[in-house]
Hints:
With about 250 residues, the protein is α+β, with helices and mostly antiparallel strands. It contains 5 helices and 12 strands.
Amino acid sequence: MNIDVRRAEYSAVEAMRGLYRHDANCQIIHDSALSRGIADPYLILVNGRTAGYGGVWNKYDPGRVMEFWVLPSLRASARAIFRELLAASGATHVEAQTNMPLMLTMLYDFATNIVEENILFEDAFTSSLDCPAVLRRATPEEGLSDGQWVLDADRAVVAAGGILFHYNPPFGDIYMDVPEHARRQGYGSYLVQELKRVCYESGHRPAARCNPSNHASRRTLEKAGLLPCGRLLAGIVKGESNEDAPPRADNQT
């Protein structure tokens, strides 16, 4: 089997990414990296025919493999193909979501010093939280990002958040922030509950993520019906001289 891995333009791998997304059937945390040019695409050829592709960060975590997909007919040779991707790209790190089996297998087969960087959440149930607050769109005068939403209570903003839609369709990534003075009063979970509704009404599936050490955010998401469905892990390619250096954590794309 002749394996050829070469740097390519995004257009050369774009169609295969549709199959990659279909196989995943979940929110892909770093889905936009290749299309935005902050990761480099690699085209994989086997015996002269298109066989798959890979992606390697060139920003945030340069040298880290962040996507890998091969044709189903070649999955038995995935390890050999991935080894050539590592060699061609000079990659030193690998990342993978635990709910994406092919990439997770490559992580465990080729990396060490594996750490957890993100928890991914999916909508698991519909909550019925009640709160004396009103959800509304943020105004430009409030200095918030376009498309953000806020909760008003007692004529004051007690929480703000929104939904990011640049992930793989149909997922929308919910985020929120509650100022210190308004925490532990249920505003955050109520905001997430209402943003889930907004997400569905716009034709998207709610999802979210948080740092593993952010226990407060996790409790807030879970109370609103978003439960863990996967983790983003990262490790160092075995045999690298920088084996003791930990992977960087929690970049936002």
